[in-house]
Design brief:
- The structure is a homodimer of 324-residue chains.
- With 324 residues, chain A is mainly α.
- Chain A has a single domain, classed as Farnesyl Diphosphate Synthase.
- Helix content of chain A is 76%, strand content 1%.
- Chain A contains 16 helices and 2 strands.
- In chain A, strands 1-2 form a two-stranded antiparallel sheet.
- The longest helix of chain A is centred in the middle third of the chain and has 29 residues.
- Chains A and B meet through helix 4, helix 6 and helix 7 of A and helix 4, helix 6 and helix 7 of B.
């Protein structure tokens, strides 16, 4: 049996020994920097875990798994410019530590380096893998564009929101799992199940992020509880509240949203109160469970006797249970 | 015999019928916009001309050739943000017409779409083509970084400058030619000659750009003659002048460079006078001829009986003779 911790170690050794390029240093230093900020690396882990179900030699999945993580960090580097984010994992973002030009150009090279890592895939699978990666990568950009579009809209529907997070977050989790299957020689029915699992779990994870921002345990959450409420961020909870609120609740919600100056704690308490009154918490929890169940069901359906299927299921269950 | 005009027509039909994506429109409209601004499309033409020497069926080179042009326009979109350029081919740049975020994200998708187009290459050549493309693409980014680094340095050597323009401009011309050869099944010796031809010609083209900015015929040049002098742009001519000037010429050159306010015509006349006194024009012309000769020599060495070799040679000679 290959445990996630063992795969994570292998992955870390591979990352530590990997060079993204040397000169000019101004171009490559920011890449080493963002990759060194860590993160849970759970996308490449999903690739390795999926591969381990169908082929115990996970070496051939290592570099493609890294490609997924490098691509993910490329999107973070560029998204942080667009979102004017000052911090990433508690450290200055690349465009803050250096400047926007650096973050644009280093990000571009990261995307190219992700393709480099994907070229490690065997000849007979290369075109199929790249086809799926290209589609996924373009969809992630489409999701980011929709996310930015939604910032100035107040009529975003639940369906539109789910569609956006599917593109921005979920398709890459789907691809991470699918990629593992493809590399290990799984058949098409299987890789489709893997993709569908990641796609549904990903939507669940994002909805859970939205939920924890409001209802997370401050001791465990790591971030400021209510940050999304303070920033009027269009989360699943706010979108539901906007569509469900009527009468005085609607007036109250509109009031808090339109205020330009306010006491943070007061706004968080008031909007949370509105969510409570509308039953948004329970509604969101049901949605999350719905997507997680769909994802787990796809994994359960995988036809294999491999003990690694259990390892993947347990790993995903842990992710589902997380509270930060 | 297949003439460049006929290849250009085929290319235009392919571009006209090509979709980069539909939704969200905010993401894809800027791509259609920048691709519609035109340009001479001479990079994809080089690919098609090189391919036509070794395989008269140029259809299989069309999409890969487009990839080169889409990649080139991706670099323009991102470079224009970094350089704060207001205009591109006489029209507003994407970050001016929309905003920087749009130019970042649409550029990212263009890079992905370039890879999509490259996937049209036959299975047995795909890895080699992508390997070479990845290297070229990263080098172009390295060249842009060096170009930005040079903006704040006054001790850039001739060697460093040539190294920078090689990366920023030439390697893509080299790859454009090499790609045509690879797709058409040319052997490695041949594809190396094609690459070397593009690499050397590219350096020649950039040096000629630098020269024409100062010594171009205003009636033919299209841009303001002396624009680089006015902006203190570190061209080949300025770098040579800075290294060659002594005594009163050095004092005079330093004076004009350090002035914050000046009469444009006066500065252009004065700096041109210094270039004249230092023999910079002749020196630069010799360099240009040196690189063009090397490039043409590589093309001459191509071992083939194909009449298309002559067509490529003539096309390149036209490019060399251009005065704008």
């Amino acid at each position: 049996m290959i445990q996630p911790t063992s795969l994570l170690e292998k992955l870390q050794i591979e990352f530590d020994g990997h060079s993204y390029g040397d000169a000019p240093v101004e171009l490559y230093e920011p890449i080493t920097y963002i990759m060194s900020l860590g993160g849970k690396r759970f996308r490449p882990l999903l690739t390795l875990l999926a591969a381990s179900i169908f082929d115990t030699d996970i070496k051939k999945a290592l570099k493609p798994a890294m490609a997924v993580e490098v691509f993910h960090n490329f999107t973070l580097m560029h998204d942080d410019i667009m979102d004017r984010a000052p911090l990433r994992r508690g450290m200055p973002t690349v465009h803050e530590k250096w400047d926007a030009n650096t973050a644009i150009l280093s990000g571009d090279v990261m995307l190219i380096r992700a393709y480099d890592l994907l070229l490690d895939v065997a000849q007979d699978k290369l075109r199929a893998v790249l086809n799926r990666f290209n589609q996924t990568a373009a969809e992630v950009c489409e999701g980011q564009q929709l996310d930015m579009n939604f910032e100035t809209r107040w009529d975003v529907t639940e369906e539109e929101y789910i569609g956006m997070i599917r593109l921005k977050t979920s398709v890459l989790l789907g691809f991470a799992l699918e990629l593992g299957g493809m590399i290990a020689g799984a058949d098409e029915e299987t890789t489709k199940l893997l993709y569908s699992a990641g796609e549904n779990m990903g939507i669940g994870f994002q909805l859970k992020d939205d939920l924890l921002d409001v209802y997370g345990d401050p001791a465990k959450f790591g971030k400021q509880v209510g940050g999304d409420i303070i920033a009027n961020k269009k989360t699943f909870l706010l979108i539901e509240a906007l569509s469900k609120a009527e009468g005085s609740l609607k007036t109250e919600l509109d009031h808090w949203i339109s205020l330009e100056t306010f006491d943070n704690a007061e706004k968080v308490a008031a909007v949370t109160g509105i969510y409570d009154a509308l039953g948004i918490r329970t509604f969101t929890e049901h949605k999350i469970n719905e997507y997680f169940s769909r994802g787990m069901a796809s994994l359960q359906q995988l036809r294999t006797d491999s003990v690694q299927k259990e390892v993947l299921l347990q790993f995903v269950e842990q992710l589902v249970a997380r509270e930060k």
